[in-house]
């Protein structure tokens, strides 16, 4: 077990006698040219021997020695000091307070008596503050300094808590400290002055850049579905840039799980992290169910390496062998219910607005893929949703060359380019593309920006040509849409777009109701209208294109998009001082954070932002690409909303609204919705509320989706994506400040009227240690119905024991 060193007063023995203490014997002094400065109330000198009295201060290099009385021999560097002795300085910001002592300034050795001190801390106007990642404080009957950073502490204590009443300390007959680590034998660990552990040997790194390998404190907890949980971790500090943590966890009801985490941090943005977890599940039989095995493996790897200032390579990879494994054993609800995995490796170089890149990626998703269950009738194909089937899409690889806007010669015209050459493959239960499908895509554009009198007009023309080495049969009422053809296909289109932005309309309100609501403030309201016309033609073979990514859903369109952005700003009146209320209103930080609030200025602050937009389709069939009674996805709908809405030819899109209101520095409200004016319903409706006041905080989110599902078949009712969920968070306290804290959250499925997950955490923080306990519950149908208790215990500047991780805390 490894623990760090620090200090506190404790029960020390009476005069122990000094015969067993080592003596610091200085080597012959050498004149290193360091200048000595002496300040005192009175002093006398004879042959370089000084006798100094009254607030004596001797400065030697970066070392400072203070006392009431000092005898200093300048040729040898020997010092004898009595009365309020204080020695400070050195590379580790050392500080020693003693009753008396001797030292040699040139050899940096000494003996100090009745000592309290610190390493890695310094005194400021606010008291002692940490200046090192591994600070500690200590006390001792005798402290022997045998070198610049070598100490022996006899009959003393060490801690990382503030003296004189630390939350925890180590007591030992002898501590040894050097520039790398501190160590002790036969020490006693005390918490809140209660002896808890006898430690035959303990070490702690002193150098903030030095780390130490060792066995970490075991994790112990219990789960209703996994049984008793016992885990142990081993930490290996490979070097100053790399480390490895390996863990073994035993679930009494399920089996063994192994995990390993590798970390590397290089220069600049260079890094690499990898994580592995795997479970050999014995399986279980849920109440009224059948035998279930949820074992699996999950491997992630992320890395980046810069090849100069304009080029880099990177990767974000994940392999998951079983979705039930993650759903059943992940401690994060968001990860447990996530069904999408994207792995990508890439290299990119950027020069003068040109970007060349090579990438290879793999998408893996748990989807309900359509499967033909019975022969088709004369009018329709019977499609049955098969649950829990994976879809995998590969770019293996893709070479891209893109260019941002560049001026065309001496004209006002701008040109840009998107191009790629890709190898593609798609695998799903009812379809596997044959071999690798080759795709070449070229998309140049020329644009002309014009402006004047506050009006802005941006028009562009372009062409896109895309070649596919394979295609698919045209889906009809009798032909499914998953039949591949070996024949190649070329898709070409011509594009025209013009965007018009009129002058911003604005008005400033002041006095009257404005001052009653906002104080000495002005309120400015701005209206920013925008209209865009887009025309794409030439895509006559949309239904024959295989689907791999958004490049494959380009369709004909003739549309107008119109919308308006409204903003409300508040601004301090000219000549008015910034009041405390103004700071509270305008500060983005919590008002209990005084340092941050003082940084807030009374300049303009945006309080309300509301964007409303909609599209009108002059070509309601999108050039014949619409398949009635099915869910249709086009690039023009993806750019408007992430919610599918096309199941038949239509002329108008849902109304898209995005509203955000900062009612005060304490509250944020956001309301986003898509309203389908044809079906007269909200296809999506999301509300977010966040509130904080001092140590109290709360959050509320409501999410509603009622849109065409992944499978929408003609002649039957729609398989609708229909869910309604509510999440709540309530809490009081702070994870980093002393005192009591409590927080709770929960997620509710309003359609099923059931609780999906809930957690309750309580914590108490002392000056430099803290304890947190959590109860967490998951209800994810037959896959997971679990209750678990977890905890962690934290020692400041040392580490945390327990299985409640920082990323999973509610505070």
Describe this structure in words.
This protein has 811 residues and is mainly beta. The protein contains six helices and 46 strands. The protein has a 26-stranded antiparallel β-barrel. Strands 1, 2, 3, 4, 5, 6, 7, 10, 11, 12, 13 and 14 form a twelve-stranded antiparallel β-sheet that branches. A hairpin with a 2-residue loop joins β3 (49-60) and β4.
The average pLDDT is 83
Which percent bin holds the helix content? under 10%
Strand segment count:
46
End-to-end gap:
29 Å
SS-based class: mainly beta
User: Beta-strand level of the residues, as a percent range?
Assistant: over 45%
Q: List the total number of helices.
A: 6
Overall radius of gyration: 35 Å
* pLDDT < 50 stretches: 1-29, 369-387, 579-601, 712-718
Largest sheet: 26 strands, antiparallel, barrel
Overall 3D shape:
elongated
In brief, what are we looking at here?
This protein is mainly beta.
Layout: helices, strands, pairs:
Blueprint: E1 36-39, E2 42-46, E3 49-60, E4 63-73, E5 78-89, E6 94-104, E7 109-119, E8 121-124, E9 127-130, E10 136-145, E11 151-159, E12 168-177, E13 181-191, E14 194-205, E15 214-215, E16 219-223, E17 227-237, E18 242-251, E19 255-265, E20 271-281, E21 296-306, E22 311-320, H1 323-329, H2 333-336, E23 340-351, E24 354-372, E25 383-407, E26 414-428, E27 431-432, E28 437-452, E29 455-468, E30 471-472, E31 484-485, E32 489-501, E33 505-509, H3 513-518, E34 521-537, E35 557-572, H4 580-586, H5 594-599, E36 605-617, H6 635-638, E37 655-664, E38 667-676, E39 681-693, E40 696-708, E41 720-732, E42 739-749, E43 754-765, E44 769-780, E45 784-795, E46 799-802
Antiparallel strand pairs: 1-3, 2-3, 3-4, 4-5, 5-6, 6-7, 7-10, 8-9, 10-11, 11-12, 12-13, 13-14, 15-17, 16-17, 16-45, 17-18, 18-19, 19-20, 20-21, 21-22, 22-23, 23-24, 24-25, 25-26, 26-27, 26-28, 28-29, 29-32, 30-31, 32-34, 33-34, 34-35, 35-36, 36-37, 37-38, 38-39, 39-40, 40-41, 41-42, 42-43, ...
